[in-house]
Design a protein that fits this description.
single chain, two-stranded parallel ribbon, 279 residues, Rossmann fold, alpha/beta, binds S-adenosylmethionine
């Protein structure tokens, strides 16, 4: 394929969900460059055969701006966690679960760590055409629910897994099983992921899930009370912070007080959070 050919993304599929954070990162880098820089999201959007007109039409609205901040804050939070882990485990494997077209792994590259990106085969096929893997980086084309992918991740030098915007599409039982399996297989490792509370899942996710043919959000993963709901085993050390304001105060040029107010509401009422589970 010629590098200028556009790559098609199917509408109304789980895979299409990668568009929201990708477009959000592009917008945030354009609108709030002091808070967030991303040199590749714009280029990646341009390479996709996807109708962005609905997003483009709304991009200057307050709520879309907030959506862009959400995408960027999540990535900044997760980068904070990865860099923190790499301080003590510089040769660790950094594993992006449900990577889409996200390049957080390479953004945290310290020159020694390994980077692994995992997603469904059709997404990895798109990714490979758009983002060449670095020397210490590999892509795994598999369903995360098929644990055979773990055979390709060696945690001997430490391992940090992260899932950005992925577990909303999992049932609670599926997340629990995955976490318990990781904890047994990778003692000393860590998992970072974001969640919303029940109200947040209903308000933010129900339309997306409906588009994917999931009418009933019952059973899908949300977290209202992390200390209680994520303590699935005594081997897990759980800590949680606000997704929007737990790591950074967002007091940056261009971010309006109304954005910060909504961020407070997001972290408070919607229970938007980023969790660290240490194994
Ligand atoms: C909302 S997107 C987030 C993409 C990326 N993490 C980001 O922040 O840009 C969700 C991603 O999770 C992937 N995903 C969802 N369920 C998955 C599964 N069971 N196995 C592998 N990937 C999955 C989707 O294909 C999609 O790329």
């Amino acid at each position: 394929m010629m590098p200028t050919d556009k790559i098609h993304i199917e509408k109304n599929s789980v895979q299409e969900t990668l568009i929201v954070p990708l477009y959000g990162r592009k917008m945030c880098a354009e609108k709030f460059p002091q808070l967030y820089t991303d040199s590749s999201a714009k280029m990646l959007c341009e390479r996709l055969d996807y109708d962005f007109s609905a997003q483009e039409a709304k991009k200057d609205t307050f709520i879309y701006e907030f959506g862009a901040l959400e995408a960027a804050m999540r990535q900044l939070d997760i980068m904070w966690e990865i860099k923190d882990y790499l301080k003590d485990h510089p040769k660790a494997v950094v594993v992006n679960l449900g990577c889409g077209l996200d390049q957080t792994g390479s953004a945290c590259d310290n020159g020694m760590c390994e980077i692994v990106n995992i997603d469904f085969p059709d997404i990895i096929a798109v990714r490979k055409q758009l983002i060449p893997a670095g020397q210490r980086e590999k892509n795994i084309a598999m369903d995360l629910k098929d644990y055979q992918w773990m055979n390709e991740v060696d945690g001997t030098n430490g391992v940090i897994f992260f899932a950005a915007g992925v577990f909303h599409y999992f049932k609670t039982e599926e997340v629990r099983n995955l976490v318990l399996t990781l904890s047994k297989r990778y003692p000393g490792g860590r998992l970072i992921f974001d969640t919303v509370g029940k109200l947040g899942l209903k308000l933010m996710m129900s339309k997306i899930l409906k588009n994917m043919g999931i009418a009933d959000i019952d059973g899908y993963f949300y977290v209202n009370d992390p200390a209680k709901e994520l303590s699935w085993s005594e081997n897990l050390k759980v800590s949680s912070r606000g997704y929007m304001l737990g790591y950074y105060d967002m007091k940056t040029k261009g971010v309006r007080p109304s954005h910060r107010l909504l961020a407070k509401i997001g972290d408070g009422w919607m229970k938007m959070a980023v969790h660290r589970i240490a194994f």
